[in-house]
Amino acid sequence: MRVLVLFAHPVETSFNAALHAQVVQSLTAAGHEVDDLDLYAEDFDPCLSREERLNYHDLETNQMPVQGYVDRVQRAEALVICTPVWNFGHPAILKGFFDRVFLPGVSFKMRDGKVRPSLHNIRKLAVVTTYGGARLRAFLVGDPPRKIATRVLRAIIKPAAPVAYHALYDMNRVTDAQRKSFLDKVGVAMEKF
């Protein structure tokens, strides 16, 4: 399966970088074709320009500024997002990727003024993430990143596609053993992906 791994963390020595490496290694070992998209390493510009916003619904031109990324998303058969949760949201670079690449004609189409999901080439979705706070705190604020994966992204990919959400909460207080256990869990999940 062709898997697009979407990674968003600026520090190469972070635990998220270790998770990213584990994801790529395990998917590759399982025989998947991995397209490893490291947003920071590729210096992705998350800012939607005025011109892009004005052309947002123009299917003739809206993809041009990010065509290479659109092509990678459309070639993928599965998507694995590897990112931290900061302030109960995604890093700005990942949010910018969604804003600039998941465009009309890519992730959805407008028909009779209604949104119709169209990213049906994605047959599986997984998120590997970490939170600084406890699960209860995330729950109390509605856990927006989890909802983005399990509701928003699930709605635009192939109907009934499996979605897995692997989260390590309370990073500020977890032990080395807990980090190792989560890393191992992610490795097993990606081998079975």
Briefly characterize the structure.
By secondary structure, the chain is of the alpha/beta class. It has helices at 15-29, 50-54, 67-75, 92-101, 135-140, 144-156, 176-191; strands at 2-7, 33-38, 78-85, 108-111, 114-117, 124-131, 163-168.
Describe this structure in words.
- This protein has about 190 residues and is α/β, with parallel strands linked by helices.
- The protein is about 40% helix and about 20% strand.
- The chain has a 5-stranded parallel beta sheet, with helices on both faces.
- Strand 1 (about 1-5), helix 1 and strand 2 (about 35-40) form a beta-alpha-beta unit.
- Helix 1 runs parallel beside helix 7 (about 175-190).
Helices and strands, with pairings:
Blueprint: E1 2-7, H1 15-29, E2 33-38, H2 50-54, H3 67-75, E3 78-85, H4 92-101, E4 108-111, E5 114-117, E6 124-131, H5 135-140, H6 144-156, E7 163-168, H7 176-191
Parallel strand pairs: 1-2, 1-3, 3-6, 6-7
Antiparallel strand pairs: 4-5
